[in-house]
């Protein structure tokens, strides 16, 4: 090992993992070192560029706290999150596709009944969401738990607003169950396109590489039911200008739906709306879980 | 871009850099994404492993401050630092090889004259260091600035000791100049092997992969003179048990030297030493700088 040079160092590092008892970890570290070194060789990374990368990662680490996860943003914006999601969620083509989880899910959101208003004070045009959860064989899935979360009309999630964070107010997110026929419905607000947090190092990376920080309007769903794989996905709003340039590469054409605009009048909850309102109907198809022998 | 799938996402991310005006940055980001995605595919990275990686990097970021640079430690222990150093410091074979800079250099170390004791209170067996700085053509290099830094007999650099950090005491490091014939000499202490800081996430990675955290004993040098490339290197102590398993892959056989042990008696500075002392003689050969046209 004392005669390592530019050409032999990769094998020397890989050899250093020879005593790793966790064979999966050894596989991962070996591949990581091979690709990391191949990258540095391919671009002939300079010492100054390496140092800039160290400083960049340091900034990513320092801006990350319990409210903001800049490493996930970095993974998202480099397409790594979507790749990992895709390769771990291969499904029959009649099942609903998965997409990225994102950084804005919160454990312990309020529990609602079908028909409830989950906006809880978040601002935006009223939007009535309904649909059915089915299995791949067409059977309705009753009592499936749906987690829903979304941004408001200013493009912010509740947890991004200082006043909500301090008072622990959860808005435009909730948990509800499908009924005996697998149906669900709730009132929320119209989802709007929004930029990911871009006042940090990831935002600087996007600007330097000529990219915008926007995500097309979408509604997050996580759907769990016994006997099925948990589905983490979004429904995207048709017509959004960012559908073809989602900064986190999360759009799938099968996940785009029409959010129908309605003129003022009687809404699905029987109330008279004096301003335009929207409705979205979208069904989800779950993949049966593989049963261990 | 709305029909991205597991196979096409890499090209979609690369295409997102199309408007990047800095062509070097575009090259780097393109290669980075290709290798990052290839790694995730090769090992079929799971969502849980991805999340563990996010948490690992978050810890690396949070332990990093102005005194500790865990990202550099990570780069060092994965051999990336040495690879980048090697590919950016190709020299004729008669020139002294470069090695990693490491995290313990300090700007503004005390200036000493030849013959001075640079230990400044650091503990360890006395060690008298001497040598000559020459150019690749054999010419002596007068008035070259030498920066020297090293650990003490407990394996700690001055900046790792809380008492030094608070009082800003710099020990066993200094700057001095070669004389008119290119010679230098100073008294310091015997360098000892030491573990890199391993109470953080990088230490956990080393333990999990069956690696020790030790570096063989060495003395750091940075040598700068007009007309020559600045040389950043170490001299390693022959016989050290970690020469073949340096945790940062920094050893080069040409950089190993004998640190001669002397029984008690008169030392090079004319003083009578009542305990054993050491001497090291090592010459450095600098590569002429490329003159821009």
Describe this structure in words.
- The structure is a homodimer of 293-residue chains.
- By secondary structure, chain A is α+β, with helices and mostly antiparallel strands.
- Chain A folds into 2 domains: 1-45, no CATH class; 70-286, Aromatic compound dioxygenase (Protocatechuate 3,4-Dioxygenase, subunit A).
- Helix content of chain A is 25%, strand content 22%.
- Chain A has 7 helices and 14 strands.
- Chain A has helices at 9-15, 23-42, 47-63, 70-77, 80-87, 162-167, 201-208, and strands spanning 126-135, 145-149, 173-177, 183-189, 194-195, 214-215, 218-224, 231-237, 256-257, 259-262, 265-266, 272-273, 277-281, 284-286.
- In chain A, the strands form 4 sheets. In chain A, strands 1, 4, 10, 13 and 14 form a 5-stranded mixed sheet that branches.
- In chain A, a hairpin with a 6-residue loop joins strand 7 and strand 8.
- Chain A is globular.
- The N and C termini of chain A lie far apart (47 Å).
- The relative contact order of chain A is 0.16.
- The model of chain A has no long low-confidence stretch (mean pLDDT 94).
- At the A-B interface, helix 1, helix 2, helix 3, helix 4 and helix 5 of A face helix 1, helix 2, helix 3, helix 4 and helix 5 of B.
Question: Given the C-alpha coordinates, what overall shape of chain A results?
Answer: globular
Q: Class by helix and strand content of chain A? A: alpha+beta
The CATH homologous superfamily of the largest domain in chain A is termed: Aromatic compound dioxygenase
CATH fold naming of the largest domain in chain A: Protocatechuate 3,4-Dioxygenase, subunit A
Mean pLDDT of chain A: 94
* CATH C-level name of the largest domain in chain A: Mainly Beta
Strand content of chain A: 15-25%
Structural domain count of chain A: 2
Query: Which stretches of chain A are low in confidence, meaning pLDDT under 50 for 5 or more residues running?
Result: none
Number of helices of chain A: 7
Oligomer: homodimer
| Share of residues in helices of chain A | 25-40%
Going by CATH, the architecture of the largest domain in chain A would be Sandwich
Largest interface: A-B, 77 and 77 residues
Gap from first CA to last CA of chain A: 47 Å
What is the C-alpha radius of gyration of chain A, as a whole number of Å? 23 Å
Strand count, sense and barrel status of the largest sheet of chain A are: 5 strands, mixed
């Amino acid at each position: 090992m004392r005669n390592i040079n530019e050409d032999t160092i990769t094998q020397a590092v890989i050899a250093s993992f020879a005593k790793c008892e966790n064979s999966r970890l050894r596989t991962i570290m070996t591949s990581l070192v091979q690709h990391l070194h191949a990258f540095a060789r391919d671009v002939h990374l300079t010492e100054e560029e390496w140092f800039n990368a160290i400083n960049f990662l340091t900034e990513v680490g320092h801006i990350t706290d319990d409210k903001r996860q800049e490493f996930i943003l970095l993974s998202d914006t480099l397409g790594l999150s979507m790749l990992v999601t895709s390769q771990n969620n291969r499904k029959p083509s009649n099942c609903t596709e998965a997409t990225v989880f994102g950084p804005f899910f919160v454990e312990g959101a309020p529990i609602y009944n079908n028909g409830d208003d989950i906006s809880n004070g978040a601002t935006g045009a009223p939007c009535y969401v309904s649909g059915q959860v089915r299995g791949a064989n067409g059977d309705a899935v009753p009592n499936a738990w749906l987690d829903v979360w979304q941004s408001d009309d200013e493009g912010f999630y509740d947890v991004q607003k200082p006043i909500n964070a301090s008072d622990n107010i959860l808005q435009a997110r909730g948990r509800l169950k499908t009924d005996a026929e697998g149906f669900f419905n709730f009132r929320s607000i119209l989802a709007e396109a929004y930029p990911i947090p871009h006042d940090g190092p990831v935002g600087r990376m996007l600007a330097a590489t000529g990219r915008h920080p926007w995500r097309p309007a979408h509604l997050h769903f996580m759907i769990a039911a016994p006997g099925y794989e948990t589905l983490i996905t979004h429904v995207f709003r048709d017509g959004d200008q960012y559908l073809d340039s989602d900064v986190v590469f999360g759009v799938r054409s099968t996940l785009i739906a029409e959010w129908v605009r309605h003129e003022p009048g009687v809404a699905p909850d029987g109330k008279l709306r004096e301003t335009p309102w929207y409705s979205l109907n979208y069904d989800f198809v779950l993949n049966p879980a593989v049963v261990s022998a």
